[in-house]
């Protein structure tokens, strides 16, 4: 008998249970095991083991996506999920950088990906191809092998390929299963992108590891999500702040009767989580009034999985991301690498089995990312009353102005309380006099206007004078990436 990956062994215990449910129907763990073994056989094509060959795949959320990901792993390959909203140059970059030898595509993406496969002389497989009837023996895949390459959002230069092993994934998943008490009776609605750790690990892999049901939507639609939540049969929901904002808007536009059923559906859940970007306090409060859930905020990165989380049962605090998760060590250090006392800001550094193996074929970047075995996140935080509060990226969210260091996230939180401001992004723009000038891009409430003068008069009541933006710009919407994170370099460009 081949030695199976733990994920596969666990799935065998849940054979007849529903694993994945989509608009096309429901698929059991047995279906997933069978189809993924057929895909693995097809990928192997008479070889015994893919030996960590990279397989890039572009498939919409659904059963075929999961079966392909598992098939790549079971064949001994490294899965390289592509983003469905990326244009050709970005897909080309990931395929080239990862050195993929095989591309698997859904027919929707055949045109764009077949062209790349032909140019680069790569093997090309469509998900509509006929799969082999008989399944060949599959290789033994050790958990120390590389499993996944996810690309960073590239906010600080070209995207880097983050390599995690099966062992890293196991640590990331079991840490969250312990902290958030996943069980086989859980049912989760999956609406997050599947080229990102939030969607792949926190939702999909945790659900399947626990033997739970994962209900997948092909794309996010606020009305569809509310219809599903209103049915009242989900136990968990995870999303990013922009999704909660869209769900709040849809709730506000609904009839009183429909609002009641929406709220009732939320109340039947045991946990609702927000992550991938800072959750504005006003969104947290509004969601709480709608759903009666105090959203659980957590902190993580592609390189480390999840590191910090508010408690499942104890009190949660808005603006805080809680404490270290099981199996994760966290510390805060100053610029010279010395530990900082509680109440003093420091860089978050993380250690443990959840931390990634390397940046793909980039030993310099890998070496630079670690300090004495600790991964340097580049994020600044402070511990207050035992809980971590994120102050932002050291590079873009910490603005050095006139000798002061100020947190862009802290200023944004204050600006969102202004009656005319709907959303905002605060950045430091290079300035010969101040070093960096505090600037704010603002999305105003409908039919509102704001002058710099009236804005600054209001801000003086709320903020130290050196934290007040000296330039403001009104925009229709803020530039964001696929996960809904505001891309600060693009905001800085608006002021240039």
Automatic annotation (TrEMBL):
Residues 410-485 form the AMP-binding enzyme C-terminal domain. Residues 11-360 form the AMP-dependent synthetase/ligase domain. SUPFAM superfamilies: Acetyl-CoA synthetase-like. Belongs to the ATP-dependent AMP-binding enzyme family. This is AMP-binding protein. It comes from Calothrix parietina FACHB-288.
